[in-house]
Amino acid sequence: MSFNATAATMHSAAAQQLYPNLDFSSLNWLEQLWVSWYLWIDNPIIATGLASFLLHEIVYFGRSIPWIIIDAIPFFQKWKLQPNKIPTPQEQWQCTKQVLFSHFTIELPAIWLFHPLAESLGMSTYQVPFPSWQTMLPQIAIFFVFEDMFHYFAHQALHTGVLYKHIHKIHHKYSAPFGLAAEYAHPAEVFILGTGTIAGPLLYCYFTRNLHIFTVYLWITLRLFQAIDAHSGYDFPWSLQHILPFWSGAEHHDFHHMAFTNNFSTSFRWCDRIFGTDDKYREYRKRIAASKAAMKNKSKDEQEAAERELIAEIEAEGIRAEAIAEGSAPKTVKVQ
């Protein structure tokens, strides 16, 4: 629906119901698009539900595509955290099917409840104008902190007994994760960990009655970027964790998949440091640094062989830890 068409329909019944006395020309282009969407759909519940689902699918798969391309280009393997484990097209397709299954069985049915729930808590949805950046930035920061803490404790719980064996084990299929695998998980896990993403905004709205769904969409976009990048398997010199030392990033989360234990948080390193669940990770980083220093004058092949040996040792420890967590017999081989 074009801006001109929207402006022409501002006197329609739907426009008068949603946007009484709105001066369409006073809106910026994004706000005009927002109004156009809600007037075109002509049903706020459907418009919000459809927009929420499309946002998730477009951002998730759109952000994953660059990592698929990077995995296919040998030049980037020097920054790959586990360079001998590049996902195959077959693995990526299998992962995509599981992700889509979770999206359509968990997210799609539930997302139509979001608009009524959001409005019952006082969240703005179709309304314009949008809040200012000065309002949105601290709200998004709060959501990041809340989700990180929620995820830390929920993720630890998923590493125990029945919860691991029947739910979280699916996500740990890949000891060397890749972007698409960020939401490769059991539908129950998608629901459990997804609660941390959406509960923060809902609780904030409940207590403040001051939140716009546009802010929530920005938060979800940033959260998806964080999750996908953390599973990318690459640590570039320009990666965010080298700029913000408290940011977790791929280098932090890749160890979790490789070693099974440690590093349960998502965006930040604080909870793992506070509760001591990064001890093995920090020891591993020291061993990597010591190995690189000792192999400084060795050939590239010798350096890579030493790194692979250390990775294999850590992964073997992870196999034992996984077997203990699910109460199964010790394993000797773990396939990526």
Automatic annotation (TrEMBL):
Keywords: Membrane, Transmembrane, Transmembrane helix
Any Gene Ontology biological process: lipid biosynthetic process
Nucleotide-binding listed as a keyword: no
Compartment(s) where it occurs, according to its Swiss-Prot or TrEMBL record: Membrane
Stored InterPro entries: Fatty_acid_hydroxylase (IPR006694), Sterol_Desaturase_Related (IPR050307)
Domain of life: Eukaryota
Domain Fatty acid hydroxylase: 141-277
Protein name according to UniProt: Fatty acid hydroxylase domain-containing protein
